[in-house]
Amino acid sequence: MNDNDEGALREQLARLQQEHRDLDAAIAALAQSPGSDLIQVQRLKKRKLVLRDKIRQLEDALTPDIIA
């Protein structure tokens, strides 16, 4: 992996982490509001899980494989 590829992956990782934090805040706000749409909360939670999986994949791609 060259420096350009790694830089692009790090940018994408930062963007996904920010979106994950934003979803976390949105879920918390919806959960506290009276009469919140439970279906919308579930959709946001599902999206958050998908983002978490993508974040882990990117972190794994950026972590070098070290054979001990």
Summary tags:
single chain, 68 residues, mainly alpha
Please explain how this structure is put together.
The structure is a single chain. This protein is mainly α and 68 residues long. The protein has one domain. The protein contains two helices and no strands. It has helices spanning 3-32, 38-62. α1 packs antiparallel against α2 (38-62). The radius of gyration is 16 Å and the shape is elongated. The model has no long low-confidence stretch (mean pLDDT 92).
Per-chain topology:
Blueprint (H helix, E strand, L loop, with lengths): L2 H30 L5 H25 L6
Helix pairs in contact: 1-2
Portion of residues in helices?
Answer: over 70%
Rg is 16 Å
Contiguous helical run count: 2
**H-E order:** HH
Straight-line N-to-C gap: 21 Å
Coarse structural class:
mainly alpha
- The average pLDDT value, as a whole number, equals 92
Regions with little confidence, pLDDT below 50 for 5+ residues? none
As for the number of domains, it is: 1
Largest sheet: none
What share of the residues does DSSP label as strand, in percent?
A: under 5%
Spatial shape: elongated
Count of DSSP strands: 0
Summarize, please:
This protein has 68 residues and is mostly helical. 81% of the residues lie in helices and 0% in strands.
